[in-house]
Amino acid sequence: MADVVDTLIVLAAAGITLALLSYLYRENLLFRIAEHAYIGGSAGYGALILANNAWNYLQPYVAKGEILWWLTIPIGLMYLFFFSDRYFYFYRYPPAIVLGIDIGTYIERSMKTQFLEQIRDTRKIENWKIGVEGTNLYLLNDLVVPIGVVCALFYFYSTAEHRGPLRYVSKIGIYFLMAGFGASFGVTVMARISLFIGRLRFLYFTDPAYYVLPIAGVLLVIGIIMDYRKKSAG
């Protein structure tokens, strides 16, 4: 029985994957069904994970007898007032509490990790040892980083017009900014391509997912023929 269930799960995953990829041809009914199934399944799975994490976080405090933590449950249930026109104002309290806590925590954490630590890493030049394969790459990196940071900051300096040396410094900052944006975009594209390759490997190497491929090919050919006949008749 378990083998049958596992086989059905693999076939369903392959079918949904191909249905989503069918959007590359054109939007169709199979794509819309797979899209809604994927979004609905993700939302349901996410809700279960959040509820489980919330209880795992709450349970130790409740076990210690700290009953004030039970107040988090009615506060969380106040989200349901979103569906009530009359008592909608109750819905505003939990988002306000969550956003307030998150913003305060984020500011404290980001000030340390994204501001103070970045300043500390930018100003240090301590890797004087020989780097990879006899080259002093560590020292080169410690020199390039502060130069790039300073030049990029000068690009956004708008108090005075960029003339003379400041013009060249800000221009160097543009090159550093473009290099950073290009690297970030490249990493994003590589991540998406990696996901796409992973799905192709799943379809090609997973048994019995590859049996769905000829069926999808036949459906694609039928769809192309039907579209051609509709255009010819029109």
Task: Give the beta-strand count.
Answer: 0
Measure the end-to-end span. Answer: 51 Å
The residue-averaged pLDDT reads 85
Helix content: over 70%
- Can you count the helices? 7
Shape: extended
Q: Spell the H/E element sequence.
A: HHHHHHH
State the secondary-structure class. Answer: mainly alpha
Low-pLDDT parts are 130-134
Strand fraction equals under 5%
Largest sheet: none
> What's the gyration radius in Å?
28 Å
Structure characteristics:
234 residues, single chain, mainly alpha, 7 helices, extended
Structure commentary:
The chain has 234 residues and is mainly α. Among the domains are: 1-65, no CATH class; 143-234. It has 7 helices and no strands. It has helices spanning 2-21, 29-63, 72-77, 93-123, 137-155, 165-205, 212-233. Helix 1 crosses helix 2 and helix 5 (137-155) packs across helix 6. It is extended, with a radius of gyration of 28 Å. The model is unreliable at 130-134 (pLDDT under 50).
